[in-house]
């Protein structure tokens, strides 16, 4: 994370403020703020561009609350209360990452009646060498080591360490009975091959395989990533040398040659590369309004509207929604219900808009979804059966129209139980697996959720009428597994979100990979405007 300020408050009489930024993170359970780090102090400016950057771990599935406090430093004291407070800004790490170009600009607040200026935070993923290489080798005229046949050669690659020792990092397969083997192409990460250091020595040994494990050493050569990256050329033909033979025989030339046939660099793209390039995550929620939930006016009901705390539906919705909303720029979420009889005529619907507007089921923010949920509880009659297919098909229709990787859809279904349209639901999931979408199912209440486990394709890939889902897109969890024993709902919600959202980045990437969609280029990095210093007359 990098920080810039604009138009900070001026707290010094004779010169401008000397600002510092202090970052705090919040513990999930007790909400306690802990200091994470401080920038340097920049003297005499209201528009500091801090040099010190903070490195934090980022998890899509966790909500990391951040607080930035700004002070005008007046002395050498490390105690912040000895300095003038210039205001603060609150946000989440997801908000920064999910902003256009991973750049968030927000007003500083905290001093009543004063404009405290703005802070700009930019996030950059540390790529720490995500490249991997696909290479292929062949050899010619290797020494014959076997008494009856030719040799059975294989290669062993080692990267060198700082202290001059070597660590094995790859072994090829054995090619039987030949002195001119062609090995299969293999893929290895640049980190494993040379620790990301392009000039570090890579040692390659050639062995003749023996069944008893006492493989015979044919010879060795050294190279480096930089040499190999020249690809197939006269530079990448290596003499295989056996030092013992070289020492004994005057006429020894080599024990054969190894040639590089191909060298391709592949950069692994990450989830954040797509987010930074502008891919939006669209969040839709579908809520179970079947009669088995119990009468909403009774405390035993899963839909009970308790004025003092959220019910299980509200908790699941808020837990997942508050994290995903950071990746959706317009914060407008379609909210659907299923399994209820609707006014005025009492027809049963398995895909109705919670806000009562079928043409525009969008609610503003997670709070808008909660409000629409509570409103519809008062107007519809809980009924049945429990059909999932209509809401899955509803989202799939939207997802099917986006083929360029600019949007990805996440459907959250919250249900109390036993599914009535299993065959249709499986069919709709198999169809949906071709589209940019994932489905999260949260089971609330005490029911048996065996059928749901079948939909979550972690163990056996889901299929319908002999067709298998193209990829695993469903994640099911029972809410009761996450309830905190001490009654701390904040913890229950954090645990639930962590588990149901953990698979989304991988599901997202699997769709993009299969479709060959590359991330859009990120907008150019932010460079703060240069301020003209005004001389006072």
TrEMBL record:
Keywords of the record: Calcium, Metal-binding, Repeat
Q: Which domain of life is it from?
A: Eukaryota
Which cellular component terms (GO) are annotated to the entry? plasma membrane
For this entry, list what GO says about its biological process. cellular response to calcium ion
In terms of Pfam families, this protein maps to: C2, Copine
For this protein, the record's PROSITE patterns field holds: C2, VWFA
Domain VWFA: start-end pairs: 282-483
Lineage of origin: Eukaryota, Metazoa, Chordata, Craniata, Vertebrata
Q: Which residues form a coiled coil?
A: none
For this chain, the family text in UniProt reads: Belongs to the copine family.
Q: Which residues form the C2 domain?
A: 1-106, 115-238
The record, for SMART domains, names: C2 (SM00239), VWA (SM00327)
Q: What is this protein called?
A: CPNE8 protein
A molecular function (GO) term: calcium-dependent phospholipid binding
